Amino acid sequence: MQINFHRIRLTFLLILIGSTFMVHAQKNVIDQVVAVVGDEPVLRSDIEFQHQQALMEGVDFPGDLKCHILEQMMVQKLLLEQAKIDSVEVSENQVLMTVDRQINEFINRAGSREKLEEWLNKSILRIKEEQRDLVRNQMLTQQMRSQISKDINVTPMEIRRFFRETSEDSLPRMPAQFEYQKIAITPRISQDEIDRVKGRLRDFQRQVREGRDFATLAVLYSEDPNSAARGGELGLTPRANLVPEFSQVAFNLRDKNKVSKIVETEFGFHIMQLVERQGDRINVRHILLKPKPSTEAVEEAKEVADSLVTLIRADSISFEDAALRFSMDKDTRASGGTVINPQSQSTKFELPQIPPTIARVIENMEEGTVSDPFLMKDQRLGTDQYTIVRLQKKTPPHRANMVDDYQTIKRMLENKKQEETFNEWIERKQQETYISISGEWRNCDFEFEGWIK
Fold it and tell me: How far apart are CA 446 and CA 452, in angstroms?
């Protein structure tokens, strides 16, 4: 028996907080117990709930989607029951963080807290309380699935045998992959510009003291694209997710009516105002202003970058030494400019994974060559920098092979063994668990046969 993990992930995703916007639709569904797994019922309204959300998301499922949703909800019940038996726990802090993040996304969609509350006819506090169990169950499910397959390992011999026994047509077609290094030269910021930015922030402090709304100032002037539209609110955030300079000041705030001192971080200069604090999580409003380099400073940075390219191409200095001595990119400087793919933790990137400005440059480069300097915006900090890249290696599109794609083939075998282990666990768990399915739902074409007893 095989089970489609993409489908499982799809339905589990539909159980998450995004379904909140279909809450009103549930009120019109006449409830009915469709199935019982152990002591847990599966309600018709829950299936309708997920089905409506799937349609809203444009899900294209080749079969009876409601039957599929029922099966995956029963799978989840089996996993949750086992999680209780095994005393599997999830971090309550992680649950709260996830709920906060999702609620913030909904606030962005609605436009404001007030509009969201009006839309759902519930307070933010009530919405959060209702979603906590959903999110906790989702995390427990994922944790339990990890537990089931945690001891799966594959050896190099198994990987080689798996590769030999897999037909060429079954091996994935790998897109072009790139490995590259970079040097970033950031234009210097003058003290006059820093003083100007601090002066504006001091003026904002004065305006708030005189009665102006901090959130309005944030909407109008903050240069943080992620929070400005929300009046500068970051949402409840753990201390560990904030840069140290920012968190130190934020967690010392006590009075919601006061504005903090000016804080400098790698992103720029901030002032903030307390919204709420819950233990080691805090929500503040902030206004971010970023000092801008002068035209002369930008030209000076370009001259430095041009000089480095000339020296590297003349072999007067290696790219690695130039990165170590002159690059201002703290993530790559120590590694001689080598860029690591955060998704795979390897040095290989597919073109869509590379920042667009860099991708356009290296797409047509030859291996071992160094680009001319080009101006781009740092994706994380949002600052301009002159960038130099060296293309270390380009692997053209190809069928996965053991030389270029060992990790991909290893993951294929691991996924196969995890799927087999999970299938065996479900079949065994079905036999051990009381399961009852009512009426017409017994005619569903389930992927697992053991549901009907």
Answer: 9
